[in-house]
Every structure is written in C-alpha cells, then in structure tokens.
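so my prof wants the structure for this chain in the tokens format not the other one, which i didnt know existed until like an hour ago. anyway here's the sequence
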Amino acid sequence: MAKNLEISYLLDFYGEVLTEKQRDVMEQYYNDDLSLAEIADNFGITRQGVRDSIKRGEGILLELEEKVGFARRYRAVQEGVARLEKLTRDIRFYNSTSYAMSEEIDKATSEMLELIEHISE
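here's what i got, hopefully its the right format
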C-alpha cells in the first residue's frame, strides 16, 4: 500500500471529522510511519481491518477537501505570502543598491515585511 503524503496534510486540516479510532489509525500510519502489522497489534485488529480503516479515512478526507478546499486555499495563501515576501525583499535590495535610495520605499518595504510576518504567524 503506497502512502499518499497529501493525506497526512489533509489529516491536519480535517482529522477531527474522523472517528477517534480512525484518526488514531491514520495518524499512526501517516505521521508515525508504523506498518499495517504494527497498527493492527496496537488496536487488536487484523491488517485488513487497518487497511480498510485507512481507506475509509482517506476517502472521507479527500471528499471533504474536494467539497470545502480549506487545505488547497491555505497552501495558496502560504505560497502567495512567501512570494510577496520575496518581492518585498527584492524591492528593498534594489532600493538599497540604487544611486538615490528612497527612504519612502525603505519605510514601505519594512512595513510590508512586518505585515507579512504578522499574517504568517
């Protein structure tokens, strides 16, 4: 059974909608990297039972992400903020190496970086 690492990411967003046992099984499989046999021993069930639980959980998480899209939106915001930070640092660098450095640009880039840091917290 090949691991889809996207499921681990979705588990962080939507894990609470799973049953406690289902969430625990999936966390042991995806986050703790335990084998099906190890998880089966931990829960006193068969490897097939573990596999079935994981497959059901994956289906729930994928369906929820398809309908709601929180993880996709969060990732897009994080990528956008990272891009804004890079552009701001580039502007600051170009301004500081310019023949006639603008204090207004320097002040604006400082404020932008503070806002980006606040958003990223």
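also thought this was worth mentioning. The CA atoms of residues 86 and 94 lie 12 Å apart.
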